[in-house]
């Protein structure tokens, strides 16, 4: 029999490199697999049980032995048993799944932050230190890493099978996912949401390194400016600084310490200043007016790229006081000071 080379390759790969299971390379992977295997076993046991009973009854109650059909009715005990046992099993699976879900989607507070921007058809990763990567992501092992992700165009989905994580990447909204990689090595990155012609090429490589190697990598691949430093420049060049200087005369609220705080809004509600809130304010200020302020902030919709927004958010997140804001404002006012010009890396959008 002739077997096609492609099929042959597929079969040998499948048998020799356990392609049925990707590597278990994160702390969550064994837990996700355990649940999966449990569900699978439950299904197989259920199937065998039903199949065996069908066979057994077909033989036991065949026409030869029982030419006349007899109706058997009513056994509360039997019905209660086959209701309560599966209910118990399903509730157990529900609690297990919910517990796993919350573990996967609630990042620990000390997680390292990395930003990801998806677009047709590539993944851009930005580390707070300013390292940029395309279709690649370098992370240290043994440390929780949180990805804050957004799409520049359509829906995508960031999936790392070896870590058992996958999350939608959506235009206009930050989504997050986190993992703690356990084994140094390289792993596949896929887009798992059909996103256009070259969707299947929207792939990449996750490199997990020892913390020491990772440290070396960050030093070697830095672009010289951290995201927050890029943000600081944008904050000045886009004119945010004049309204958000923290001076008593400034028309906008001070942004020092605003990240993570609760803000009382004009309509009486309270909002927590998350990453997503900060991004949204810059694009739709009139929808997020804090109590006691006039809605005079201009919208920056279409003027700042997603990367620029990340830079600004990262800058505001780190803003503990207004000392540097005021210093920059003072130097930019005096004539002999060097003007603050945007650099190429800021990518103020077309
Ligand atoms: C013309 C003055 C002005 C400019 C320029 C301006 N803002 Fe604002 N900003 C305001 C005012 C006023 C508010 C509160 C009312 C509102 O949201 O419209 C505000 C609110 C905010 C808030 C919410 C803070 C809070 O406590 O609720 C953030 C964050 C913010 N601005 C960031 C920026 C950034 C980043 C830029 C530059 C890209 C910028 N602003 C440019 C005046 C300004
Ligand atoms: Cu995609």
Describe the structure.
The chain has 350 residues and is of the alpha+beta class. It has three domains: 24-59 and 76-106; 112-220, Cupredoxins -  blue copper proteins (Immunoglobulin-like, Sandwich); 227-346, Cytochrome Bc1 Complex, Chain D, domain 2 (Orthogonal Bundle), CATH 1.10.760. Helix content is 37%, strand content 18%. It has nine helices and twelve strands. It has helices at residues 5-16, 29-60, 76-105, 211-220, 227-237, 240-243, 275-283, 306-317, 323-333, and strands at 112-119, 122-126, 132-134, 136-140, 144-151, 156-160, 165-169, 175-180, 185-191, 204-209, 262-264, 270-272. Strands 3-2-1-5-8 form a five-stranded mixed β-sheet, with helices on one face. A hairpin with a 5-residue loop joins strand 11 (262-264) and strand 12. Helix 2 (29-60) runs antiparallel to helix 3 (76-105). The protein is elongated and about 105 Å long. The protein starts with a helix and ends in a 17-residue tail after the last helix. The model is unreliable at 335-350 (pLDDT under 50). The structure holds heme C (HEC) and copper (II) ion (CU).
């Amino acid at each position: 029999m002739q077997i096609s080379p492609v099929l042959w390759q597929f079969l040998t790969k499948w048998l020799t490199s356990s392609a049925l299971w990707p590597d278990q390379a994160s702390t969550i992977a064994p837990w996700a697999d355990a649940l999966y295997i449990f569900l699978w076993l439950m299904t197989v046991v259920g199937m065998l049980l039903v199949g065996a009973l069908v066979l057994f009854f077909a033989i036991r109650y065949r026409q030869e032995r029982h030419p006349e059909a007899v109706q058997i009715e009513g056994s509360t005990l039997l019905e209660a048993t086959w209701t309560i046992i599966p209910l118990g099993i399903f509730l157990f699976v529900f609690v297990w799944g919910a517990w796993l879900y919350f573990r996967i989607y609630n990042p620990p507070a000390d997680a390292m932050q990395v930003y990801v921007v998806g677009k047709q058809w590539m993944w851009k990763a930005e580390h707070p230190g300013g390292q940029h990567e395309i279709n690649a992501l370098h992370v240290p092992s043994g440390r929780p890493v949180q990805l804050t992700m957004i799409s520049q165009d359509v829906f995508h989905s960031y999936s790392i099978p070896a870590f058992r994580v996958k999350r939608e990447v959506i235009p206009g909204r930050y989504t997050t996912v986190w993992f703690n990689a356990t084994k140094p090595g390289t792993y596949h990155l896929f887009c798992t949401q059909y996103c256009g012609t070259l969707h299947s090429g929207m792939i990449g490589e996750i490199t997990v390194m020892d913390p020491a190697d990772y440290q070396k990598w960050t030093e070697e691949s830095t672009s010289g400016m951290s995201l927050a430093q890029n943000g600081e420049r944008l904050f000045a060049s886009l004119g945010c600084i004049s309204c958000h200087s923290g001076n008593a005369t400034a028309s906008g609220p001070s942004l020092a310490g605003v990240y993570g705080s609760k803000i009382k809004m004009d309509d009486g509600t309270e909002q927590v200043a998350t990453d997503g809130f900060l991004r949204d304010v810059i694009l739709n200020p009139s929808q997020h007016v804090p109590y006691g302020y006039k809605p005079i902030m201009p919208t920056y919709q279409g003027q700042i790229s997603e990367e620029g927004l990340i830079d600004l958010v990262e800058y505001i997140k780190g803003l503990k006081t207004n000392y540097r804001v005021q210093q920059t404002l003072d130097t930019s006012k005096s004539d002999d000071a060097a003007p603050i010009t945007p650099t190429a890396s800021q990518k103020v959008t077309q």
